[in-house]
Design brief:
Largest sheet: 30 strands, antiparallel
Number of helices: 5
Structural class: mainly beta
Number of strands: 54
Distance between the termini: 121 Å
Length: 883
């Protein structure tokens, strides 16, 4: 190709060439006849393109393409997407000649902004800058921050090998939320990270606020799996000086992640004097079906050393099971369980928990039940229950294994086919109820042995209640009822006088027997309303009206004497011959039939008083309803067939709520109309006729419960936030759900709750001053008076209280205590101090007085990932192993 600045000169005339024919011939080699063929076209391995997917990119300010340098420059809020990878940054450069992507921050007058964010799958990395090779997907990352299963990794330099492996140098691992200045971290000299699986490190040392600690390891392994994983549970160590058990390892074991529905934790304790403990804990759940947990604890406790005079040995155990069924699982059948069964002294002697709510409670109870409803007309309900009740003071145990109950729904045999039932005939209805029991009364020492069945009782009772109701004079509700009961007994007796030994002999008899009882009755009641208005024309008083509701009722019942079930035997002694009466059903499960005719009239009056009060909110047009007395009830009865003492004591009960429903008041008293003789025995003479008042108060009780907090007077609604998990544990173990007896601590779980209270406070609050000062206080006052036989004494009079206050957003203090006014002494007292150390938590609990004197100190990481990094020290209360 030629180029000229001027026009071309004219062409000369061409001279044609002279053609001469060559007579010689040349033989051409066959190799020169082949054509050149590209070998790559026949290669079995074909080359693929560099990019397997479309690369999309964008930027807010500009996108500049440099074809010569083969680069693309993106500025301000730039973004690149390629397959499952996404990079956002302030500035990015795509070097498609070298298959590299550079991402970094933007610099402005305020500093650096828009740090790169590298996202691939579920992994998110936030570095200062990054170099990514789009061909082999390797990357070099500088000053990166990434989250891994609840922890954060901060690395100066990270090499991304592939999708599942990262190598870092001089990295920090922490669970702190403050990434810029973490409270603590583990400095890793080098580490390999497999996202969502594990971190394997070289030399690792713990730093607290950049200060190195002696806690260092030549290598470390951090499991990072998001799935349930089996693993070792590291024990805590210490020394038990209170009971001379020596050094110990506690709460160590293994966690079995069996499957997605059930797990198992096996934990154990060991003391150098030979004491040991074993615990099995399992939680199970099936979504939309059921959930529950099972725990078994066994402890073999040795005090002191063998051979010493103060040596003692005792074994205790406890079984807990809680099961609840989802309401949507099956509407016609339901299975529930709440079991707390074990040694009577378990909570008093256990060395691995301070369960104050159970130490101060003297009963253990369990219930396992299954109920089934058979739909139809009529409906039939069947319930199968096994229950357990245990008194930890007397060590008596009562079991029902099982209780079977069946009932048929109400049947109205004369109801109309359509319309509302009217009149006495159409409202006649009856039911069928059956109840069978196998009851065992035993003691703690015989529980689980064959002897516990020696005095077991079995029986069954069937009842048919028949009733009807109708209106009388439009304002009176009249009802008539009858009840027929048949009792089946498998345990009866026979009694006679043995003239040879001159003793009354009672012989137990096993075999089927039965008796039938019945009673009839009627009742009438109505409701009376009274209203007094304070509103007057031109005036708007605070109290606008008071309404008084009275519900009087009168009932009558007749119970015959069933003398046919009673027998007699003669007793011959020095005074002559006497005749004694007995019934063979005396020791039966459901008791004996009555042998006294009763014609009883019952009188009851219920009262309710409330007021209409002008609302404090001027925008509201309607008045507010305020209860003055929630209830005030009077009840007594008169037995017309009795030969003496026909009036029963008058029982008065009542209750109300005041102070914006923050204080609950309940009271009651028993008033006896009859007098006492000189021996303090009740006689058939009215107290008024004996020179006294109309009634003689034999007992009275008063209970006050007041709950308030800093929000009580601000109108913000609910005062305090209850610890639902602590309430659930206390309720399962039959303890109090409030903290009047102190808060429960289980040393097998030292997290003490993961909730960060500081998040609930305003951001303006700092760690040293809290202008809100949240607090809560619960007061309970109880008074009981007894004067049955002229005792005229207060049987109990005590005030209990529990309170918590947040001195700062991270310091809290709590106390549970009380005062026994009758005995003039301080009741059980617990002091609680807690410090929220951001990623850590410190807790100190102290019981300063009483036979449960103890203290416990704990500090540890709140995160579940590193909960085994902790320190705790405590003094256990002295154990009382009994005689």
């Amino acid at each position: 190709m030629f180029s000229f600045a001027q026009e071309l000169p004219p062409k000369k005339k061409d001279i044609p060439p002279k053609r001469i024919k060559d007579s010689t011939t040349i033989k051409v080699d066959s190799l020169f006849n082949t054509k050149e063929i590209d070998s790559t076209k026949q290669d079995s391995v074909k080359k693929t393109e560099f990019l397997k997917d479309i690369v999309t990119y964008k930027a807010k300010d500009s996108v500049i393409t440099d074809i010569i340098k083969q680069k693309i420059f993106l500025y301000n809020e730039s973004q690149i997407n390629y397959q499952d990878m996404e990079i956002t940054a302030g500035v990015m450069v795509i070097d498609y000649g070298k298959n590299l992507i550079y991402a970094g921050r933007m610099k402005d007058s305020t500093g650096y902004t828009q740090k790169p964010i590298f996202t691939q799958g579920s992994n998110v990395i936030k570095p200062d800058s990054i170099i990514f090779n789009s061909k082999n997907k390797k990357a070099i990352i500088f000053n990166s921050v990434t989250e891994q299963s609840g922890g954060t990794i901060i690395s100066e330099r990270t090499k991304k090998e592939n999708d599942s492996v990262f190598f870092i140098g001089r990295g920090k691992f922490t669970t702190s939320e403050n990434i810029e200045d973490p409270e603590y971290y583990f400095l890793m000299d080098r580490a390999k990270i497999v996202p969502n699986k594990k971190i394997v490190t070289g030399f690792t040392q713990m730093f607290i606020y950049d200060v190195p600690t002696p806690i260092a390891m030549p290598f470390a392994f951090f499991p990072m799996s998001k799935k349930q994983t089996s693993g070792i549970i590291f024990p805590s160590f210490g020394e038990d000086t209170g009971n001379d058990r020596g050094y110990f390892l506690q709460n160590g074991g293994y966690y079995f992640a069996i499957n997605d529905y059930v797990d198992l934790a096996v934990l154990g304790d060991y003391y150098t004097n030979g004491s040991y403990g074993l615990r099995l804990e399992s939680t199970y759940a099936a979504r939309y079906k059921f959930r529950g947990n099972v725990a078994f604890r066994y402890e073999n406790l040795l005090n002191s050393e063998r051979g010493f005079p103060d040596f003692a040995q005792n074994t205790i155990y406890n079984i807990r099971w809680s099961h609840s069924q989802d309401a949507k699982a099956n509407p016609n059948s339901r299975f529930t369980a709440s079991v707390n069964l074990g040694s009577s002294q378990f909570f008093q002697q256990s060395i691995n928990q301070i369960n104050q709510a159970n130490i101060l409670t003297n009963t253990l109870a369990s219930s396992v039940s299954y109920s089934k409803t058979f739909q139809g007309e009529p409906q039939v309900n069947v319930n199968l229950t096994a229950s357990h009740s245990q008194n930890t003071n007397t060590e008596s145990v009562n079991l029902t294994l099982p209780t079977v109950q069946a009932s048929m729904g109400r049947v109205f045999p004369f109801e109309p086919k359509a319309g509302v039932k009217k009149g006495i005939i159409q409202n006649i209805n009856f039911q069928l109820n059956s109840r069978g029991e196998y009851r065992i009364n035993t003691t703690d020492s015989l529980f689980g042995k064959s002897e516990m069945f020696d005095d077991a009782l079995a029986g069954m009772r069937h009842s048919i209640p028949v009733s009807t109701n109708f209106k009388v004079f439009e304002y009176f509700n009249f009802g008539v009822n009858a009840n027929f009961e048949e009792t089946w007994a498998l345990n009866t007796i026979n009694r006679f006088f043995d003239e040879g030994t001159e003793e009354v002999v009672t012989v137990d008899q096993n075999g089927f027997d039965r008796f039938l009882t019945y009673n009839v009755g009627a009742s009438v009641g109505t409701t009376l309303y009274g209203m007094y208005n304070f509103e007057k024309e031109g005036k708007d008083p605070k109290i606008q009206a008071i309404r008084h509701v009275i519900r009087p009722s009168l009932s009558y019942s007749v119970t015959p004497a069933f003398d046919q079930y009673y027998e007699t035997y003669e007793v011959i002694d020095a005074d002559g011959t006497t005749t004694e009466e007995f019934t063979r059903f005396e020791n039966s499960l459901f008791g004996r039939p009555g042998n006294n005719f009763s014609s009883n009239v019952g009188i009851a009056v219920g009262n309710n008083i409330e007021a209409k009060v002008r609302s404090k909110d001027s925008t509201k047009t309607e008045s507010e309803k305020v209860f003055i007395l929630n209830n005030l009830n009077f009840a007594t009865s008169y037995d017309m067939a009795a030969d003496s003492l026909r009036w029963s004591p008058l029982r008065v009960t009542g209750g109300t709520q005041i102070l914006n429903k923050k204080m609950t008041i309940n009271f009651g008293m028993t008033l006896d109309p009859y007098a006492l003789d000189s021996n303090n025995n009740k006689i058939n003479t009215y107290n008024a006729d004996n020179g006294g008042s109309l009634f003689r108060m034999t007992s009275a009780n008063l209970n006050l419960n007041y709950t308030l907090s800093n929000d009580t007077f601000s109108g913000k609604g609910k005062d305090d936030e209850e610890d639902e998990e602590a309430k659930r544990r206390a309720a399962t173990a039959n303890g109090r759900t409030d903290d009047l007896f102190g808060k429960t601590q289980d040393f097998a779980d030292k997290r003490l709750g993961d909730k960060d209270k500081s998040k609930d406070n305003n951001e303006e609050n700092n760690a040293f001053y809290n202008y809100k000062m949240p607090w809560s206080l619960r007061l309970v006052y109880a008074l009981n008076y007894t004067n049955v036989r002229r005792e005229n004494r207060v049987s109990s009079n005590s005030l209990m209280f529990s309170g918590d206050v947040e001195l700062t957003p991270r310091w809290s203090f709590g106390v549970s205590s009380g005062y026994d006014i009758l005995d003039k002494g301080v009741t059980f007292t617990q002091l609680r101090f807690e410090r929220d150390l951001l990623s850590w938590r410190m807790n100190f609990t102290w019981v300063p007085i009483g036979n449960q004197t103890s203290w416990n100190f704990f500090i540890g990481i709140k995160s579940n990932l590193l909960k085994d990094i902790k320190y705790d020290q405590r003094r256990q209360p002295d154990q009382n192993l009994g005689n």
